[in-house]
């Protein structure tokens, strides 16, 4: 590879959700001249959310995509170099760190901030994507509020699904919970909580056949995978809680992760097992997964990266 395609930077930010853009704002203000690559989904998961009502400072709420445009504009105004492109390969075995963008351009960076986020796992049915944002959601904490007093459905059998079903039960008239097997994966305490909540109705051995509605969710057709019997249930909201997949696979072999692929950071910091590489946002947070916590961790990563560069005479 010719040297003409190599670019050297002080700080490279990979990813562009609330964590990545906040890191860009802070590193720019510290005169670190960050380069940020937006990745496959510029703006991250918030770009597939409609109304955001729980982020401080927006008394009337804001549309997710609009909010991410504002984050991006602020980072750009501070001087961040924001580009469209996907990190496809990394080599963190020596310094400067090497990252390849779109399999061709090579970036050499003194510090790296990983903010690649996570992606919700989906069922894979056509109506789910078509009605995403129109009653279909992968985040009950984000969107449950819009279905107050209405009937909703949730699919999933783990702790997250149980937590979200319980959360929805406080807002919605009835929560129909669909579980593929005849048992739940959730912890005993969460299972008991769901089973003891009167307005959560559990359906065992149940698959989602189709979400019904032209422009918004109106009903769901479910199928009992033992008997083959189908049933239609009128609902206003359909929540998918079958897990998230952290976007961390390109860091395999370099960065320590847990068994699900979430990047391990030293508690109370954004530091990874490699000095000079930091991680923030949903790629390292499987607990909170909110825009405001992602933004906070992006700030932490920027400050950690600045201190690292200063300590090593690189800034």
Could you characterize the architecture of this molecule?
42% of the residues are buried. It contains 7 helices and 19 strands. The protein has helices spanning 18-29, 64-78, 126-130, 140-143, 159-169, 188-195, 291-311; strands spanning 6-14, 35-37, 51-52, 62-63, 81-83, 87-91, 97-101, 105-114, 118-120, 136-137, 151-155, 174-178, 200-203, 206-212, 219-224, 230-234, 237-240, 244-246, 277-279. Helix 6 (188-195) links the parallel strand 12 and strand 13. The chain folds into 2 domains: 3-119 and 244-311, FAD/NAD(P)-binding domain (3-Layer(bba) Sandwich), CATH 3.50.50; 122-240, FAD/NAD(P)-binding domain. The two termini are 28 Å apart. The strands form 5 sheets. Strands 1, 2, 5, 6, 7, 8 and 19 form a 7-stranded mixed β-sheet that branches. The mean pLDDT is 94. With 315 residues, it is of the alpha/beta class.
Q: Bin the strand percentage.
A: 25-35%
Helix content: 10-25%
Q: What is the CATH architecture annotation of the largest domain?
A: 3-Layer(bba) Sandwich
Task: Characterize the overall form.
Answer: elongated
CATH superfamily of the largest domain: FAD/NAD(P)-binding domain
* Global Rg: 21 Å
The CATH class assignment of the largest domain is Alpha Beta
| Elements, N to C (H/E) | EHEEEHEEEEEHEHEHEHEEEEEEEH
Summing up helix and strand content along with how strands pair, one would put the structural category as: alpha/beta
β-strand number: 19
Task: Look up the CATH topology of the largest domain.
Answer: FAD/NAD(P)-binding domain
What is the mean predicted local confidence, pLDDT?
94
Largest sheet: 7 strands, mixed
Distance between the termini: 28 Å
Number of helices: 7
Low-confidence stretches: none
Count of individual domains: 2
């Amino acid at each position: 590879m010719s040297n003409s395609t190599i670019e050297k930077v002080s700080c490279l930010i990979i990813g562009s959700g609330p964590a990545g853009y906040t890191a860009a704002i802070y590193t720019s203000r510290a005169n670190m001249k960050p380069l940020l690559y937006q990745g496959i989904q510029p703006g991250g998961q918030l770009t597939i959310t409609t109304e955001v009502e729980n982020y401080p400072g927006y008394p009337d709420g804001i549309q997710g995509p609009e909010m991410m445009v504002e984050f991006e504009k602020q980072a750009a105004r501070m001087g961040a170099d924001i580009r469209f492109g996907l990190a496809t390969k990394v080599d963190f075995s020596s310094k400067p760190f090497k990252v390849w963008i779109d399999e061709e351009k090579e970036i050499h960076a003194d510090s790296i901030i990983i903010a690649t986020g996570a992606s919700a796992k989906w069922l894979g049915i056509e109506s789910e994507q078509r009605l995403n944002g129109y009653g279909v959601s992968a985040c009950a904490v984000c969107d449950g509020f819009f279905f107050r007093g209405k009937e909703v459905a949730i699919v999933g059998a783990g702790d997250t699904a149980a937590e979200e079903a319980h959360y929805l039960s406080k807002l919605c008239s009835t929560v129909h919970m669909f579980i593929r097997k005849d048992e739940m994966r959730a912890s005993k305490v969460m299972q008991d909580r769901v089973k003891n909540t009167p307005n959560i109705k559990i359906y065992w051995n149940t698959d989602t056949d189709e979400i019904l509605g032209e422009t918004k969710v109106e009903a769901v057709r479910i199928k009992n995978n033992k008997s083959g019997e189908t049933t239609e249930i009128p609902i206003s909201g359909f929540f998918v809680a079958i897990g998230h997949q952290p976007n961390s696979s390109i860091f395999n072999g370099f960065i320590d992760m847990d068994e699900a692929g979430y990047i391990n950071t030293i508690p109370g910091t954004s530091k990874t097992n490699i000095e000079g590489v930091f991680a923030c946002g949903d790629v390292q947070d499987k607990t909170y997964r909110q825009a405001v916590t992602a933004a906070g961790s992006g700030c932490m990563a920027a400050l950690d990266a600045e201190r690292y560069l200063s300590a090593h005479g690189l800034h």
